[in-house]
Amino acid sequence: MSYIDNKVPPTRDTRLKICAGFGGSVEDLLGCSKRGCVFAKDRSFSQTGSCQMYLSLAMVMTIPDSVTVLHGPVGCGSHAYMMEFPIKTGSTGRGFQRSSFLWISTNLGESDIIGGGEQKLKETVQYVDTEFHPRVIFVVSTCAPNIIGDDLDEICDGLRNELTAKIVPLHCPGFKTRVNATAYDTVYHGLAKNLEFEPKPFVDFRPFNKYDPNFDIESAKYKYKKSRTVNLFNASAIGVPDEKEVVRLLTAMDLKVNISTEYSSLDDFRLLSEASLNISMCTVHDDYLLDILNKRYGTPCLILNMPIGIQNTGEWLRAIAKKTGDTEKVEAIIKKEEADLMKALEPMREKIKGKRVLLNGGVIRVACMAVLLKELGAEVLGVRPYHYDSLSDPIYERLAEEFPGIDVNVASNQVYELVNIIKREKPDLVFAHPGSNAWVVKAGSVWIPLFAPAKNYLGYRGVYDVARSMVRSLRNPSFSKNAAERIPLPFRKDWYAKNPYSYIAAPVEI
Ligand code: SF4
Asked: Can you tell me whether residue 104 is helix, strand or coil?
């Protein structure tokens, strides 16, 4: 029995070995990971982090012709407002307009918590179906209905035959996981269980007739097309310029690229089984779905690292070429791209050389960015991954080779640790998630987003864009300098004299 047979997918905390708190050298982290003790580490004091439900919303709200029903107190929906702008611009950048952007809360109150919220959920879904006629309704359950025991799947199954829309239940209680990335598994589980991934005859293709004189030619054409088609899996942190860059490189290898699953329509999902290779752009995102597609359709997959930086992009392309039989072609592409890039980077190198940089964000992205920054001549002081898991070992082994003794602080936000490190190390630049910008600036460093949907980070153009952002931002750091002088941080002064990892519990051997 595999995970997909269960109603509710496992959280990352149970599916993988997860660490949410660590401070020390990369060698200690890897040693601790091998022994298992890193996964039993945590904090004796934590600031708040964000919840998996937010990330699930960020994914499903990108699906065109969908409405999201948020089953819970209305406050959980405060996340949803933030998504309208990026998703609308993300849709436009991918060539289609989102005329409507709808989400509805079941608005559970005190009496529902006592009496149950199932009836409200049922009525809300029926209302959405008849009022807005979406093609798909995502029902997202939050903490409260999971505590009181509302049976989301039973309600959805009971409604399935009376709705015109497809219905996809998603179990997203924030309290169940310490790792936001659980959202990827939750959403993929819901999509794989409730939507079609196979093409429909007479809708998506004309079935071959073996008595047709062209049968052999048509079958050969179909097989060839499938052999040159690859699925590329995107994520909210990978914007339109990044997708275009990766598609540019894969198209140069004569591959046809389908991008999924964000911003994909129900018609696009039906083509997921029509590819010869499923390619992940980030280890953290896709292993759950790629495993399902492999078991269901036998499609091989590639989960390596992120194509961020010169070396990483080359390795990533070579690994794809090995699977698609384009090894000679890829060498010519890499040679030309690298030569062009080196020339373009030349005027910026001197301005970046020796700049001290800290990285804060997704576990794989920060490690890949560290390598990119080294390629540009910057000095990487440390990385702060949001979490660490057993899948990350190969990437961090590579990090240890590139940066012996580098400091790793595993921390989901935990800005008190972040500002302590910034005050102590005084980096020239901090690459961090957009939510951390104010803290970085108030602590006195220049901030650059670790990802931004309108910017390029992946592939060769990504290297150039990162270099250009660094040069521009370093030209005038006075905003951060003035902010740090004038805006006090809320922490006691003696905190900055303490070890930033004072609240990380000592390792427990397991
Ligand atoms: S943690 Fe729970 S209550 Fe808070 S926003 Fe997330 S789902 Fe809602």
From this structure: strand
| 419's tokens | 């500002």
Q: Are residues 132 and 240 in the same domain?
A: no
pLDDT above 90 coverage of the chain, percent: 80
CATH code, 159 = 3.40.50.1980
CB 507 within 8 A of CB 37: yes
**pTM of structure:** 0.92
pLDDT digits 0-9 by tens, 9-29: 999 989 988 888 999 999 999
Q: Residue 396: pLDDT band by 50, 70, 90 thresholds?
A: very high
Ligand 1 centre from 75 Cα, in Å? 8
Tell me what pLDDT residue 507 has: 54
Q: What is the largest CA-CA distance in the chain?
A: 84
Distance 237 CA to ligand 1 centre (A): 21
Name the residue of 51, 81, 179 whose CB sits within 8 Å of the most ligand 1 atoms, as the mutation to test its pocket. Answer: 51
If one compares 508 and 376, the residue with the highest pLDDT of the two is: 376
Task: For residues 434 and 487, state if they share a domain.
Answer: yes
Question: Atom 3 in ligand 1: which residue has the minimum CA distance?
Answer: 143
The reply to whether 362 and 482 lie within a common domain is: yes
Classified as helix, coil or strand, 169 is strand
In total, the chain counts a number of residues equal to: 510
Question: Is 392 strand, coil or helix?
Answer: helix
Are 155 and 287 contained in the same domain?
no
pLDDT (0 to 100) of residue 506: 65
Residue of minimum CA distance from atom 1 in ligand 1: 174
Q: Pick the residue whose CA is nearest to atom 7 on ligand 1.
A: 142
As a whole number of angstroms, the distance between CA 331 and CA 186 comes to 38
Number of domains in the chain: 3
Domain of residue 368 covers 334-497
Ligand 1 centroid from CA 142, angstroms: 6
Residue whose CA is at the smallest distance from ligand 1 atom 8: 76
Angle in degrees, CA 82, 90, 312, rounded to 5: 105
pLDDT in tens, 289-324: 999 999 999 999 999 989 999 999 999 999 999 999
What confidence score (pLDDT) does residue 508 get? Answer: 52
- Ligand 1, CB cutoff 6 Å, lining residues: 51, 53, 72, 76, 142-143, 173-175
Can you tell me which atom of ligand 1 is nearest the CA of 174? 1
Distance CA 463, CA 309 (A): 6
pLDDT for 510 equals 46
| Residue 175 alpha carbon, nearest atom of ligand 1 | 1
255 CA to middle of ligand 1, Å? Answer: 42
Q: What is the pLDDT of residue 169?
A: 98
